[in-house]
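User: Hi! I'm working on a homework problem where we have to compare a predicted structure to a textbook description. Could you give me the structure for the chain below?
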Amino acid sequence: MSWRLRASRILGSALQPLLIVVLAALVVTLTLRTRALRAQADGARARNVEPKGLAYVPAYRASSLDGDSLTIGERSDSGRQLLVFFTTTCRFCAASVPAWRRLTKLADTGSVPTRVIGISLDTSVTKLREYVHKNQLAFPIVQLPPGKYVALYRAHRVPVSMLVNYDGKVVYTRMGVVDTKAVEDSLAAAMTWGGRSARSTASAPLR
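Assistant: Happy to help. Predicted structure tokens:
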């Protein structure tokens, strides 16, 4: 064996551990970079899609399915509104309906009176009426106007449960399904709590 071949093998054996270390460092760097990019994307999504605590929503007038005129996002008294956004085809919304019905019974038991209002993103009134009847929704149901209000209320994806003060300030938001006792209890506590600080919960499955 020539001295050049022996030297090459010795050099290769010496460099192999170093190469492994370099590759491992690259893997770690790429993993950290991927996590950072994912965190940035999640932050951008939260800013642009999810409701924010301490944000204000615009008030608008709407007619309920029963023909009553309602002001959404604002109350003339010192009460609150629990706005629940849904569509008739969203399975996570359907899973939230039982909790929303129970919260309706709790609405006026706290120190701050609260009115539950369902806000549908559907365009078909016929299908919406069928859905309301099938799910025995006793609270008022209105439709969210298309266009800017979807963005202003951060209702791009449903379900959303949003507790709003009399002046339109969002004091609690829940993105996603309400199908566990812990989540329902947190909403109930926010409804019956007399303070006005903003609260929010982590996102859950959405349509």
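For your comparison, note the following. The first strand starts at residue 60 and ends at 63. The helical segments are 3-48, 91-106, 125-135, 148-152, 181-192. Good luck with the assignment!
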